[in-house]
Amino acid sequence: MLRDVPLLKQAQSLSLQPFYQKGINAGNEEEEDNVSSEMKRSAVYSMTVTQFCKLINKIESVHASTCMDILESYKVPEACNMWIKREVDRKLPFQEKHVAQQASILGNLEDFGVIKSSVGRRGYLTQMLADCYGFDTVFLVERKSYKLKADRSLRQKESLILERLRIDIEDLNLNAVESLRGIPYLAIGKHLCGPATDLTLRCCLGNITQTESSCPTLGITKEQFHAITWFTSWAVDADHGSDLSDITDCSLHSQSIYYSEEKQRSGDEHGVEDVVRNMKPVERAMLGFKCKQIIDVGRMMWAKEHGLDSQFVKYVPSSISPENHLLLARHAKCL
């Protein structure tokens, strides 16, 4: 029990912070979703093969109507030359693909008009912001405490104010962070899971009044959405050593799926679980990535419904990282 005392003290200390508000970004009751992954899996496997095929067709249709014109936006901003040319602290780890990701994220933010040039991984994106764009105040929001080499380097910059908020993003009231009151700020989320992405969007945009929707209804039911979110794990499970560069441009009209439908009609097929088991890994990955894109485009639509300018782009080639999409949003006053 003694081991629990520091955690208890941390929780008590956090509850006294003005920016702590339990569940502020969790969404309203209609938005809350407590359906577990296992429950989603069971719901999919309880479908008939015909129903499963119709769901695949629906995903294909929605993806074709919303995700086929995603802009490729690979940026190498001049401001990041000092990092690209390795004119930085030699003690910091350097991996070309990580620098390419960080530079393109910042280049897209620059082109989008939310940062201006002043002349990776989690900590190194912040380091690049400070080194290349002159940011002088940084808040790191994390549930757990990480001790990264970039932290030590950042703290050595005398002109930089660095503060870590050790809090779950679900409970963070940004309006109550004293240092952010009345000033514009840039929020960057990297390495976030899907639910954490949604929490972060609510955290940053929660006070913006929703405008009348101009986005088309995609016709996705709650049950279909649960299935789509479950399918996204298939992209995470994919063999990222394979060339998946054109995976989302391919059709999912798999012969094995429709052959299974015919087999079930004849009594030789035992259901969706067998269909899934017989799908090729590339087919599963293809479906997973398409579902991820549908959800991300939905987030972009949500931002637009809240009066924000928003874009969804591929910011690096999939050969650098298959997780290569970037959602950008800005308030009108940033124009």
UniProtKB/TrEMBL annotation:
Keyword Zinc: yes
Keyword tRNA-binding recorded: no
A Pfam family per the record: TRM13
InterPro entries from the UniProt entry: Methyltransferase_TRM13 (IPR007871), Trm13 (IPR039044)
Bilayer-crossing regions: none
Gene Ontology terms, MF aspect: tRNA 2'-O-methyltransferase activity; zinc ion binding
Keywords associated with the record: Metal-binding, Methyltransferase, S-adenosyl-L-methionine, Transferase, tRNA processing, Zinc, Zinc-finger
Catalytic activity: cytidine(4) in tRNA(Gly)(GCC) + S-adenosyl-L-methionine = 2'-O-methylcytidine(4) in tRNA(Gly)(GCC) + S-adenosyl-L-homocysteine + H(+); cytidine(4) in tRNA(Pro) + S-adenosyl-L-methionine = 2'-O-methylcytidine(4) in tRNA(Pro) + S-adenosyl-L-homocysteine + H(+); adenosine(4) in tRNA(His) + S-adenosyl-L-methionine = 2'-O-methyladenosine(4) in tRNA(His) + S-adenosyl-L-homocysteine + H(+)
Ranges of residues in domain Methyltransferase TRM13: 101-211, 216-329
EC number of this enzyme: 2.1.1.225
Organism domain of life: Eukaryota
GO biological process: tRNA methylation
Its biological purpose: tRNA methylase which 2'-O-methylates cytidine(4) in tRNA(Pro) and tRNA(Gly)(GCC), and adenosine(4) in tRNA(His).
Protein family according to the UniProt entry: Belongs to the methyltransferase TRM13 family.
Annotated protein name in UniProt: tRNA:m(4)X modification enzyme TRM13
Organism name: Salix koriyanagi
Organism classification: Eukaryota, Viridiplantae, Streptophyta, Embryophyta, Tracheophyta
